[in-house]
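Design a sequence for this backbone.
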């Protein structure tokens, strides 16, 4: 269900983080949040709301400056993408016949970890 700008601000404030309408709109304008501008106002999904909260935390709690925010967001996006790929691999491994799964697990156990 789409969220309004007001709802995203309320969500962020409910987490104890102060954010203004102008800040959230700036996040969208800088393409840090991919909300849709519609005739009735901005439309956010739950991931957008979580991203607004994350950006506020990065800026306020960790004092990440505006120039570094896109870098941090990109790295986090890559991390989340990698987690999804690993989950897909785990699901695929779970469907292997037991003998192949054991062989794969033995092979992985021999791989050096740094």
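Sequence:
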């Amino acid at each position: 269900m789409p969220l309004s700008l007001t709802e995203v601000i309320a969500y962020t404030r409910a987490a104890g983080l102060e954010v203004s309408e102008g800040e959230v709109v700036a996040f969208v304008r800088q393409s840090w949040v991919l909300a849709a501008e519609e005739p009735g106002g901005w439309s956010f999904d739950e991931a957008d709301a979580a991203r607004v909260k994350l950006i506020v935390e990065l800026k306020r709690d960790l004092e990440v400056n505006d120039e570094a925010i896109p870098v941090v967001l990109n790295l986090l996006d890559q991390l989340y993408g990698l987690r999804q790929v690993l989950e897909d691999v785990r699901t695929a491994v779970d469907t292997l016949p037991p003998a192949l799964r054991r062989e794969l697990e033995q092979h992985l156990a021999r791989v050096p970890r740094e």
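The chain has five helices and two strands.
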